[in-house]
Specification:
The protein contains four helices and six strands; from the N terminus they run ααβαβαββββ. A six-stranded mixed sheet has the order 2-1-6-5-4-3. 31% of the residues lie in helices and 40% in strands. The chain has 124 residues and is an alpha+beta fold. The radius of gyration is 13 Å and the shape is globular. It has one domain: Nuclear Transport Factor 2, Chain: A (Roll).
Length: 124
């Protein structure tokens, strides 16, 4: 069962809206200039052995490649564990509208002010 928007912290709503837009500039805009983004998908799409993007320009490049490969991205948030400047976000990821192939994902988001400073993505 997914959470309703009124149950989701504002920073998580901002993150979800940006990624669901598939707009690389909108995605890049939510990250701090020296942010990191780590994911197994980064290994594949960006040929990064450690799976880590560093800085907003690398994150924008990754978002651009992702947007070119996808027709849609949806994050149905299941649960959020919230601390002061960090959240663990568990969600069902649905790509290109294919609900039958949805996957469970956990992201740890960290932020400074209103920008994400770090993101670690775990796919199940």
């Amino acid at each position: 069962m997914s959470l309703t928007d009124d149950q989701i912290p504002s920073m998580v709503l901002k993150w979800r809206a940006a990624w669901q837009s598939l707009d690389p500039d909108r995605i890049a805009a939510i990250y701090h200039p020296d942010a990191t983004h780590m994911s197994a998908v980064v290994v594949e799409r960006m040929q990064r052995a450690d799976g880590t993007l560093r800085g907003v320009d690398e994150i924008r490049a990754y978002a651009t490649i992702s947007a070119q490969r996808l027709t849609s991205f949806k994050a149905d948030v299941i649960d959020v564990l919230l601390e002061e400047r960090r959240a663990g976000v568990e969600y069902w990821r649905v790509i290109n509208g294919d609900e039958a192939k949805r996957t469970r994902v956990m992201e740890i988001l960290e932020w400074r002010g209103d920008k994400i400073s770090g993101c670690r993505v775990f796919h199940f």
